[in-house]
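Holo prediction — magnesium ion.
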Amino acid sequence: MSIEWYLDFVDLDYAPSDRELVALFRIEPAKKITMREAAGRIASESSIGTWTTLTTMSPEKRRLMAKAYGIKGRWVRIAYPPELFEGGNMPQILSSIAGNIFGMKAVRNLRLEDVRWPPGMVRSFRGPQFGIRGVRKIFKIEKRPITATVPKPKVGMSSEEHARAGYEAWMGGIDLLKDDENLSSQRFNQFERRARLSFKMRDRAERETGERKGYLINVTAETMEMLRRARLVRKLGGEHVMVDILTAGWAGVQTLREECEELGLAIHAHRAFHAAFTRDPKHGMSMLAVAKIARLVGVDQIHLGTVVGKLESSREEVLAIQRAITSKNVTGNGLILQQRWGTIKPVFPVSSGGLHPGLIPQIISMLGRDIVIQVGGGVWGHPQGGRAGATAVRQAIDAVLDGVSLEKRAESEMELRAALEKWGYIRPK
Ligand code: CAP
Ligand code: MG
C-alpha cells in the first residue's frame, strides 16, 4: 500500500482555467528526487496535502488540490483553485504559495519567480489609491521624473536638523523629502516633532518656490501606531506616508492601506529586507513577485532598483518589475507569466540606491521619465551642501530632458560641475 500521494498533484498536460492562480517556480530537486516528484510535493504542501496518504479525503476536498504542470527544465507551473484562498487576505495566500514549501527536504533550492493573479483575486484587493497619474497630479509635475532625497546620515539628525535638511533640499529643487527606512521615532528625532517641524518647513518652501513639495514620512511601526501616525500626517496637511512593507508585514500594510483610503494619503513602499530572500537566484522569491503583491495591496510608489547603483539589481529584473507594476496587461514569456490588472492602477517606480547626478542619464535612458529618482548620499555628499546637491540633481535631469550632455551643461551650472568633479560617473558599491 502506497504511503504517499504526491504524484496525484501532478498533471503534466493540465490546462488551468482563467479563474485559477498560477505560480511559476524554479525547482532544484534534492538528490534522488525527480522534478515530477519535487513538483508534486510543492503542489501538495502548498495546497491541501501532507507527507502521507490520509483517511479523511473526499471528492470535494480533492477539488482543492493544486496541479503541477508545464515542467520545463527546472521550471514548473502550479495552478491553484481560487477556493483555496481567502480573497483580500494576502498573508493567508502567501502562507499557501510561499509558506512551508521552501523548507521541504525534497528540494535543494526553490524560488517563487512569478504569480499570475486571476481576475477574481485581483478584484479582492484595493490596488493603489492614486497611482502614477494621481501622484503627478498631487505635485503638479506632468512630465519629468519626480525627485526625492533622504537626509543623510540616515539616522542621527534631530527633528530640527531633519526639517532644516528638508527645507534646504526643497529650496534646491527636490520635490519630495523622504525619511530613511530605519528612521521612525527615535529619542533624538521623535515622529510627531519631526512631522510638525518638517511640514512647517514644507509649507515655507512651497511659499518661497511656488512649487508643490512633498514629504514621504516613515510611519513604519506596530499597526495601531502606524494608523495614529498616518492620521497625524493627514492633520498636518501631508499627502503621503512611507512604509517599509516587508518589515511591517502584509497585514500591517493592508490595514494602513484601508486607513489611507479614508485619509486620502498616498503610500510610498520601501522594500528593506527584500534582499534577504529575493537576491539568491536559486532560492526564495523574486522581487517581481513581491512588487506585484505590493501593487495588488495598493502602494502608490515602490523601489525597484537602479542596476548602476550600490545595491544588487539586474537590468532584466528591473525592467521586468517596471513592466509588471506599470502596465495594464503583461504578456507572458518563459520566465514571466501573463497578467491582466483590470482596474488596478499602475505604481510609480522608484529608482534609488547609490545614485548621484553622474548616473541620472543612465537611469532615465533605462527607465524613462515616469519614475521617481531618489538621491541620498548623492545630495548630502555634495561639496557645497544639500541645497546645491539638490540643485545638481535637477540640473542633471534637465540636461537629459534637453538632450544635452552633463559635461556641456556643467560648463554653465556650477552645482552640477561640482558633483561631477567629486563623483564623475562612478557606480558605487
Ligand atoms: C538610498 C537609501 C535607500 C535605498 C534602498 C539607502 O540612499 O536611502 O534605502 O535606495 O534600496 O538607505 O540606501 P542613497 P532600494 O541614495 O544614499 O544610496 O531602493 O534598492 O530598495
Ligand atoms: Mg534608505
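READOUT: The longest helix spans residues 191-209.
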